[in-house]
């Protein structure tokens, strides 16, 4: 589901230009078009934290105040998601020592594993997945979620996180390796 720059074409460009001139209706249309993806990105980083909507709202305020500086070098979606991801990472840092609600990844289990596993096994897999996600650094988690949950390209993730594509590849490799180490025993027991 990664997006190409200006995926909406001239309509998005028009809305951005109108919003940059102060048209709040155009900004609202841009936000509505991107709301679900941005919320999923934030949730992927924060889990089911009650701060998800606060971070989302803060991201929108930040985007609105910075909109005049948006040069459309990327799509509005990529730009807005970058703001939201950075806000989510900042929030995660603030609450790092507090117990956080884990990200639900059980839906990514193979279908036959979902059907075959008992409720107890599902619960254990969920706990294993939570532990695995918690073992990732903030950047590793962000890259993993943006790549595998949202389907962004590595180049786009680099733009969102403000780092080189090679660095993104490195984060993704480390995240995948860490998750495999933690999750492999749990899946082997199915």
Highest CATH level, the class of the largest domain: Mainly Alpha
Question: What is the H level of CATH, i.e. the homologous superfamily of the largest domain?
Answer: RNA polymerase sigma factor, region 2, helix turn helix motif
What integer is the average pLDDT? 79
Work out the helix count.
9
Structural class: mainly alpha
**CATH fold-level name of the largest domain:** Rna Polymerase Sigma Factor, Chain: A
Strand content: under 5%
Q: What's the total count of β strands?
A: 0
Q: Indicate the low-confidence ranges by residue numbers.
A: 1-7, 97-117
Q: Multimeric state of these chains? A: single chain
Q: What would CATH call the architecture of the largest domain?
A: Orthogonal Bundle
Helix content: over 70%
Number of domain units = 2
Question: Which value, in Å, is the CA radius of gyration?
Answer: 18 Å
N→C terminal distance: 30 Å
Elements, N to C (H/E): HHHHHHHHH
Gross morphology is elongated
Structure commentary:
With 190 residues, the protein is an all-alpha fold. It folds into two domains: 10-94, Orthogonal Bundle (Rna Polymerase Sigma Factor, Chain: A); 106-188, Arc Repressor Mutant, subunit A (Orthogonal Bundle). Helices cover 71% and strands 0% of the residues. Helix 7 (138-149) packs across helix 9. The longest helix is centred in the last third of the chain and has 24 residues, at 165-188.
């Amino acid at each position: 589901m990664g997006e190409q720059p200006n995926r909406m074409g001239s309509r998005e460009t028009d809305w951005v230009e109108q919003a940059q001139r102060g048209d709040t209706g155009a900004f609202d249309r841009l936000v509505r078009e991107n709301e679900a993806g941005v919320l999923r990105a934030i949730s992927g980083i924060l889990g089911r934290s009650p701060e998800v909507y606060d971070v989302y709202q803060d991201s929108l305020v930040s985007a609105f105040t910075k909109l005049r500086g948006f040069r459309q070098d990327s799509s509005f979606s990529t730009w807005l998601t970058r703001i939201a991801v950075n806000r989510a990472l900042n929030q995660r840092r603030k609450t790092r020592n507090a117990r956080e609600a884990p990200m639900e990844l059980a839906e990514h289990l193979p279908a036959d594993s979902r059907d075959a596993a008992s409720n107890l096994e599902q619960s254990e897999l969920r706990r294993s997945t939570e532990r695995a996600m918690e073992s990732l650094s903030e950047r590793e988690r962000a890259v993993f979620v943006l790549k595998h949950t949202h389907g962004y390209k590595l180049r786009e993730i680099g733009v969102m996180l403000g780092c080189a594509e090679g660095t993104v590849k490195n984060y993704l490799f480390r995240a995948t390796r860490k998750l495999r180490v933690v999750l492999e025993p749990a899946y082997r027991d199915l």
